[in-house]
Amino acid sequence: MAFLLKLNAIKKELELLRGLIEETQSIHQKDGISDQDILIPLDDLLDSIAPVKARINEWLEDKQSLIEELEFLTEGFRREYGAVLDYKQFASLVKNPELKERLAAYGREEAHHANQLTELIFKHGGTPEYIFAVSREKDGWGPEQYLDYFIDQEKEAARFYQSGEEKFQDAKFRWLLGEIKTEEKEHLKELQKLKDEFLKKEIVITMDPDFKWVDPFMGEPGDRAWIE
Ligand SMILES: [Fe+2]
Ligand SMILES: [Fe+2]
């Protein structure tokens, strides 16, 4: 599978390269460049791309759906793991014990989704990957901003799984996406309710002003089945 993925990546890069060369060729006159020592090799390079791409396409033809499924799963995993981190972070900031537990529960459910996707990623011959990006965007956020953010994320997650259900044919694959989508919609409903309660001041969310988010989420034992 690794070979297929790399080949698919080459295919995409070749497409980019082709565009770049054509762009370069279209501006050389305007920029007063007429040196054939550079223009001819560029022509040759462009000519060599098409047959290689055609060959790769031919070779990948019947494997395309497998590759697309794996790309979708990998993107899903990236989102789920990001959601685990976000819920964990907000749960650490909040002092209300009941709310803390609810947020931690959402985090556990997102971790469960990540595990489900991971299983399928392995079955497809892939490896789940998450790149930690240290983001400062949430610095100084209050509860309302966090809630709005989670509501958006859950909406986006439901849309993402819906798009997968529409795109892919495999029954088992679609069943899993449908199941996760339903759970994301449930999260969305609960968060919207939570926000209403918060706005009506039935809940006062207390956040720890001294809390410093330092380490990325390392999870509880069993939370990260893909590496443990
Ligand atoms: Fe999820
Ligand atoms: Fe969710």
Can you give a write-up of this model?
The protein has 228 residues and is an all-alpha fold. The chain folds into two domains: 62 residues; 136 residues, Ferritin, core subunit, four-helix bundle (Ferritin, Up-down Bundle), CATH 1.20.1260.10. Helix 3 packs antiparallel against helix 4, helix 4 packs antiparallel against helix 6 and helix 5 packs antiparallel against helix 6. It is elongated, with a radius of gyration of 23 Å. The mean pLDDT is 87. The site of one fe (ii) ion has 6 residues, from helix 5 and helix 6.
Secondary structure elements and pairings:
Elements: H1 2-27, H2 36-60, H3 64-93, H4 97-123, H5 143-167, H6 171-199
The structure holds fe (ii) ion (2 copies).
Content of β-strand:
under 5%
CATH superfamily of the largest domain: Ferritin, core subunit, four-helix bundle
Q: What is the name of the CATH architecture of the largest domain? A: Up-down Bundle
CATH topology of the largest domain: Ferritin
Give the termini distance in whole angstroms. 22 Å
| Portion in helices | over 70%
Q: What are the segments in which pLDDT stays under 50 over at least 5 consecutive residues?
A: none
CA radius of gyration: 23 Å
Instruction: Please write the CATH class name of the largest domain.
Output: Mainly Alpha
* Form type: elongated
Major sheet summary line: none
